Amino acid sequence: MTVLVINSGSSSIKYQLIEPDSGTTLAKGLVERIGESTSHLEHEVEGQTFELDQPIEDHAVGLSLVIDMFNTHGPALADAGIRAIGHRVVQGGKYFDKAVLITDEVEQIIENLIPLGPLHNPAHLKGIKVAREMFDVPNIAVFDTAFFQSLPNESATYALNRDVAEKYQIRRYGAHGTSHQFVSGAVTELLGRDDLKQMVLHLGNGASASAVVAGKAVDTSMGLTPLEGLVMGTRTGDIDPAAVFHLSREAGMSTDEIDTLFNKQSGLKGLAGDNDMRQVRALAAAGDPHATEALEVYVHRLLHYIGAYTAVMGGLDAITFTAGAGENDADLRAEVCARLTPFGVKLDLEKNAVRSKEARVISTQDSAVTICVVPTNEELAIARQCMEII
Ligand code: ADP
């Protein structure tokens, strides 16, 4: 039994064929630069990568070429036992607190939510429409926002004029929910406790923190959109919204220009000139003061959230690092935990230095808070949610 997981972007389709029970990825790939003359398809199976360079005019052509790849290089889709197609959908608004079977009505709601997810939802819809036509199995939408539908009102509500907020559906929806749910669930299993007050730090190119009590999310750093919260690869994270008025009035910048500045030209890239944490670290090690400052701001923001969420939850049992930088950057974990020494946090430096794909504890036995590393796997989480639905 397998699930084909699709993450459809505006000019790309990422896919993975997954066996949800074993967690094995049988094949994965990527179609990129759809609609351009330099489109590219990459299909990876059993350690081999097969590539195709030809103009791919739209998502329908892209997906049919993916099917050809499967049938030529394996695993042949007819024999792959596909039970469902799982689609990642970034914005589910207030309508979805779990994955759903995609019907015409569900498609319509995802379309109605475009104003709240202008970059992502139109792109997801392209993939959904094409997959529903091409495959005769259930198509299921798994929403990034679903896990955060449990946020208490006090955490989801901005102190914005009530009428305006309601009319324009402005509230905290969160994002990366599939990862936060998967990782916090793994920590519950790893520590064998289902009453945990825990924090998950998802530190990839996008970055977010969540507070989870007994399996339910009670706070998260991303808000109306994935711009709010931590310092990210290219996003500001938290910033006084008055910076927008200031740039508009003083610099004469348009809304779109400020949007691009905050989402694509800020964060580590804006502070240090590079969005990749490895590169920023290398620059800092070579004495670049901007890179050093970027790392300091990054850690400071993390500490802000750790302090805030400890107070919100009335305690803290575990902090878990996940995603690219969280899973791989031992120095980052050591720097954050060193700052938590006054609160009884003790990192086991040897365990912290081990590279592994396993979920693991990296704090000492007597640490006041258990520190973990859990590799996230959003595709597997999507595949498993699909199996629950069907
Ligand atoms: P995305 O949000 O694009 O899914 P990932 O979770 O793959 O991102 O994380 C990508 C980021 O992880 C990279 O930009 C890089 O900053 C960081 N990263 C990956 N490996 C390391 C490493 N060994 N040390 C520090 N940072 C790393």
Automatic annotation (TrEMBL):
Sequence positions that bind substrate: R88
Marked site positions, Transition state stabilizer: H176, R235
Localization: Cytoplasm
CDD domains in the record: ASKHA_NBD_AcK_PK
Residues binding ATP: K14, H202, L203, G204, N205, G206, D276, M277, R278
Cofactor(s) in the UniProt record: Mg(2+); Mn(2+)
Gene3D superfamilies per the UniProt record, alphabetical: 3.30.420.40
ATP-binding recorded as keyword: yes
Pathway membership, UniProt: Metabolic intermediate biosynthesis; acetyl-CoA biosynthesis; acetyl-CoA from acetate: step 1/2
Binding sites annotated in the UniProt record for Mg(2+): N7, E378
Annotated GO CC locations: cytoplasm
Quaternary data: Homodimer.
Its job: Catalyzes the formation of acetyl phosphate from acetate and ATP. Can also catalyze the reverse reaction.
Protein name according to UniProt: Acetate kinase
The species this protein was found in: Trueperella bernardiae
